[in-house]
């Protein structure tokens, strides 16, 4: 009994190689596009997460503003800066019945502002001006392009806009309405 074993012919092999080459060339052209899309998606998710974390810090400050375990004097929340880009708040952190003032180590005055693509915070301030503010965001990776506060009664609207430095054309905006629980 004879078994007839036959392989591929040269023409069949050349056709298979040509089809494979065309498919691989197409995949090689699509791969960089897919990689860029993946990097943009990751940057978008990280940007959204970073902005959400920053707005949560601001929300927490608004909720605390005005708390006093006694008779505190003064305005507990002020919006200042250009176009409402700075927030000054006071709260009785140590529950001693008064707001510890500016310049004290345990001051209960806090400020939040946008300056040069960064969200900044400082303890012990009663003005949006001055130096010594610390970054809450890293301007080398995240650029804060907008920050505004608006007040309607005890409600504060916070609007934060930013972009990943690697993808400046892909801006994101996060907004929140927060109830100041201790505001008049």
Task: List strands and helices in order, with pairings.
Elements lengths: L9 H55 L12 E4 L5 E5 L18 E7 L2 E6 L10 E2 L6 E11 L2 E10 L7 E8 L5
Antiparallel strand pairs: 1-2, 2-3, 3-4, 4-5, 6-7, 7-8
Pfam families: N_methyl (PF07963)
Membrane topology: Single-pass membrane protein
GO biological process, one term: protein secretion by the type II secretion system
Radius of gyration: 29 Å
Proportion of residues in extended strands: 25-35%
Q: Average pLDDT value?
A: 91
Cross-sheet strand order for the largest sheet:
1-2-3-4-5
Secondary-structure element pattern, one letter each: HEEEEEEEE
GO cellular component, one term: membrane
Pfam families: N_methyl (PF07963)
GO biological process, one term: protein secretion by the type II secretion system
Protein name: Prepilin peptidase dependent protein B
Please characterize this protein's 3D structure.
This is Prepilin peptidase dependent protein B. It is a single-pass membrane protein. One of its GO terms (biological process) is protein secretion by the type II secretion system. It is found in: Membrane. It comes from Paramixta manurensis. This protein is of the alpha+beta class and 184 residues long. The protein has one domain (41-179). The protein contains one helix and eight strands. The strands form two sheets. Strands 1-2-3-4-5 form a five-stranded antiparallel beta sheet, covered by helices on one side. Strands 6-7-8 form a three-stranded antiparallel beta sheet, covered by helices on one side. Strand 7 (155-164) and strand 8 (172-179) form a beta hairpin.
């Amino acid at each position: 009994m004879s078994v007839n074993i036959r392989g591929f012919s040269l023409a069949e092999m050349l056709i298979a190689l040509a089809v494979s080459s065309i498919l691989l060339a197409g995949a090689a052209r699509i791969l960089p596009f897919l990689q860029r899309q993946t990097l943009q998606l990751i940057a978008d998710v990280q940007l959204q997460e970073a902005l959400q974390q920053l707005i949560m810090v601001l929300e927490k400050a608004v909720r605390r503003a005005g708390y006093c375990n006694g008779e505190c004097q003064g305005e507990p929340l002020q919006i200042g800066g250009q176009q409402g880009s700075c927030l000054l708040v006071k709260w009785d952190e140590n529950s001693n019945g008064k707001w510890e003032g500016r310049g004290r180590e345990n001051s209960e005055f806090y400020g939040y502002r946008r300056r040069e693509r960064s969200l900044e915070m400082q303890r012990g301030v009663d003005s949006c001006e001055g130096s010594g503010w610390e970054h809450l965001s890293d301007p080398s990776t995240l650029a804060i392009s907008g920050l505004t506060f608006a007040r309607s009664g005890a409600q504060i609207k916070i609007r934060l806009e930013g972009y990943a430095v690697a993808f400046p054309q892909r801006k994101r905006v996060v907004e929140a309405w927060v109830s100041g629980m201790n505001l008049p």
